[in-house]
């Protein structure tokens, strides 16, 4: 295993300990296959245990959507979602639809009530969504979480065979989609996005849901390129801990605008969506045919201040047109173990998706002269 670390922040001795800890944990897990995870620590020696982080700060807020309700009360007309339906790179004119925090809160609560009352979803159920990006998709994601459930977004380009594998593995009873599907083929209750989000005129009832730390927030699946897709479940405390931390280290204001560029089936999108709403910012989005028509021009036209990209996508972007702007903070996601040095920027960030490790690193004003050390232990 090879580890890349900043020698100014971590000593070689500390990284060697991390390697020893990982090695010990893997050995326990592979030799005691029937042991429950919470008992793994009892097999480790004293030097392998750490007591230096016992007073870890727990997120005060577990309810992922209470920040939406807060912004709906305090800034009801503030734009929560700005969805671009068409874009002309030459004139930088856009055709777009917006939704205020008041509207997002109102519509997502209606969705939550409908899911609870019409479809009998229960707390911690997984509700799957197979749909293209749209205003309705984001409202439904918010509504699923508001209903006390965890959401599972499936890439709209996924073949039916993969979708069936994911639904079977996740034990989903409900699939929300923007296309017509045969229930007999999938075996789930199929709900049309149009039917679920249309005619929101009925009276709202009290949901009476008090989320707990270990309640489910969302599920995400691997690509399945090496076999059957494998899922990971993320709790609300886990996600809120990550969001709270990022809210402290990522510069932002309530006038900031984040471009949600990755697939909603990719767990970085969870950060993009819920961190933006948590901070009272505007979530901007578009489908790929619009988004990548001219990304730099779209960023400029929408006044984007925050953008999350994998290194491979970032390599396609003119850094002078995006990263070079003083008004733009660029978040670049880690998609491989090897990290290259980022072009100088106002504030560069590197992060790994919530389901992968909940790790984030911040290095403002990262320069090409930044030194790295590498540790490789076989």
The gist of it:
By secondary structure, this protein is α/β, with parallel strands linked by helices. The chain contains 12 helices and 16 strands.
Looking at the overall shape, the CATH architecture of the largest domain is 3-Layer(aba) Sandwich
β-strand percent reads 15-25%
Task: Name the CATH superfamily classification of the largest domain.
Answer: ANL, N-terminal domain
Q: Return the CATH topology of the largest domain.
A: Rossmann fold
Helix content: 25-40%
> How would you describe the shape?
globular
Count of domains: 2
The rounded Rg comes to: 22 Å
**Which regions contain 5 or more consecutive residues with pLDDT less than 50?**
324-348, 356-378
Report the count of strand segments.
Answer: 16
The level-1 CATH class of the largest domain = Alpha Beta
Mean pLDDT: 80
